[in-house]
Write a structure and sequence with these properties.
- Helix 5 packs antiparallel against helix 6 and helix 6 packs across helix 9.
- The protein contains nine helices and twelve strands.
- It is an alpha/beta fold.
- The radius of gyration is 19 Å and the shape is globular.
- It has one domain: Metallo-beta-lactamase, Chain A.
Length: 300
């Protein structure tokens, strides 16, 4: 079944290019989505050959097709191609992990193809109040099923826990855990090997982001497959490494603030220099990560 053409939605700046893997599996050269089967009939969809969107997920079975995030309009044709290679059926449910356009930009087209959109209630409220990137939200793009703290999907033989984490990446985040098969879709609560985007303007916070990652780690073990919002398929060890970096980065900036350094002096000191080579990228540079932590701590 082919989906309807996407209506153009203006997207957030996360459309900037992410580091691209040189490996291509099952899609040939050029831009495409690779479907990685993380458990039977449960997939991670990751863009190759350039930035297509944040990572997506899909559960396929006799009960339903469930899509975890839906990408953005410029990549819809490639996403549809990847989906139809797995199943001819359109998604019955679309879970939004947070409000950013590279994850929810295709809400309208999937809804018009029959998907019921699910999110935390704050995500729906923000879309109603502020739209997407300062443009009014298409009514068809709005979640029709919302929750406060947690909800369950009992589908396809692998129940899914959809869990809200407050004031983390945004104030409407949700992770999706499949305990039976030991898989967690973290959304943008996890940027694997990258400085994370902590969206202070949409209710995110550094401490909340740290708490969310600690919550994920409390749920997983050494064998868990963790699908980050950006970056390659990861493990608990990978998440621990990135969490250790963020805690240290916060402490380094907080120490300079406590010593009465202003933002210019902190940037000159470059406290995150030791993480630059491993974590700096086009959207969240070392400088921007430093500024985010400073603003979060000081409110300035």
């Amino acid at each position: 079944m082919r989906f309807l053409p996407a209506r153009l939605l203006l997207l957030l700046p996360l459309m900037l290019t992410l580091p691209a893997s040189a490996e291509h599996h099952g899609g040939g050269g050029g831009k495409h989505y690779e479907a990685i089967e993380v458990s039977e009939d449960l997939y991670m969809l990751i863009g190759r050959g350039g930035f297509l969107s944040g990572n997506l997920g899909m559960s396929v079975g006799e009960d339903a097709v469930v899509l975890i995030d839906g990408g953005m309009p410029p990549s819809l044709e490639l996403l549809n191609k990847a989906i139809t290679q797995i199943t001819p059926e359109a998604p019955d449910f679309l879970i939004n992990t947070h409000i950013h356009g590279d994850h929810i930009g295709n809400n309208t087209v999937f809804a018009e193809s029959g998907a019921h959109i699910v999110s935390h209630h704050t995500l729906r409220s923000r879309l109603l109040e502020q739209g997407l990137n300062d443009q009014p939200a298409d009514p068809a793009s709005l979640p029709v099923i919302t929750f406060a703290e947690e909800m369950m999907f009992h589908l396809n033989g692998a129940p899914a826990r959809i869990i809200h984490t407050p004031a983390a990446h945004t104030d409407g985040d949700a992770m999706v855990a499949f305990p039976k098969v030991n898989v967690v879709f973290a959304g943008d609560l996890f940027f694997h090997g990258l400085f994370p985007f902590i969206d202070l303007d949409n209710g995110g916070s550094v401490d909340g982001f740290i708490a969310a990652q600690e919550q994920i780690l409390a749920m997983v073990n050494d064998d868990t497959k963790i699908v980050p919002g950006h970056g390659e398929l990861a493990s608990a060890t990978d998440l621990k490494r990135d969490l250790t970096m963020l805690k240290d980065a916060r402490a380094l900036v907080a120490g300079l603030i406590a010593a009465d350094h202003d933002i210019d002096a902190i940037l000159a000191a470059n406290p995150l220099a030791k993480y630059h080579d491993d974590y700096n990228w086009g959207f969240i540079t070392t400088e921007r990560m430093t500024r985010t932590i400073y603003r979060d701590i000081t409110g300035m």
